[in-house]
Design brief:
- The protein is an all-beta fold and 164 residues long.
- 0% of the residues lie in helices and 48% in strands.
- The protein contains no helices and 13 strands.
- The chain is elongated and about 80 Å long.
- The chain starts with 9 loop residues before the first strand and ends with a strand.
């Protein structure tokens, strides 16, 4: 179940100069995997059709090598609880922006930006997810266009909060 009670204790005698004390049980902690990624768009993304995976063109961090830069997908390496955050800047066109956070083929949460004018607007959301090994998390552009620039306004990040 992932808690320290399922681990085998190691007896360590505790001594002082005067007397020997009772043994102390020390539970070794398993090594937590280090998983984190952050990616951005530095150029506009306007695929022209609905429900397209968002591919990022700048990888800022990929600790654990779990984010597939070519597909724009995170693949879960170990069962656990993960945090995902995304922030998109709408391209200044008169089309609303809809972005979906996907787990495999399921929409988990979405973000929307539109005021009816051809202006830049932001759409963002986040989620804390229980994942199992092999799950894939990715962003889907349901509709609209994303603004990209060297200032990195449009980003997607995730990390392992704790391992099961």
């Amino acid at each position: 179940q992932g808690d320290s009670r399922s681990l085998t204790p190691v007896d360590m005698p505790v001594t002082s100069q005067a007397t020997t004390l009772l043994p102390v049980h020390i539970y070794p902690l398993p090594q937590q995997m280090r998983v984190a990624f952050s990616t951005a768009r530095t150029s506009n993304f306007a695929p022209g059709s609905l429900d397209q995976p968002i591919i990022f063109d700048l990888l800022l961090n990929n600790l654990g090598e779990t984010f597939d830069f070519q597909l724009g997908r995170f693949t879960c390496p170990v069962n656990g609880t993960y945090v995902f955050i995304f922030h998109m800047l709408k391209l200044a066109v008169n089309v609303p922006l809809y972005v979906n956070l996907m787990k495999n083929d399921e929409v988990l949460c979405s973000a929307y930006a539109n005021d009816g004018a051809p202006d830049h607007e932001t759409a963002s959301n986040h989620a804390v997810l229980q994942l199992i090994h092999g799950d894939q998390v990715w962003l889907r552009l349901h509709r609209g266009a994303i603004y990209g620039s060297s200032w990195k306004y449009s980003t997607f990040s995730g990390y392992l909060l704790y391992q099961d």
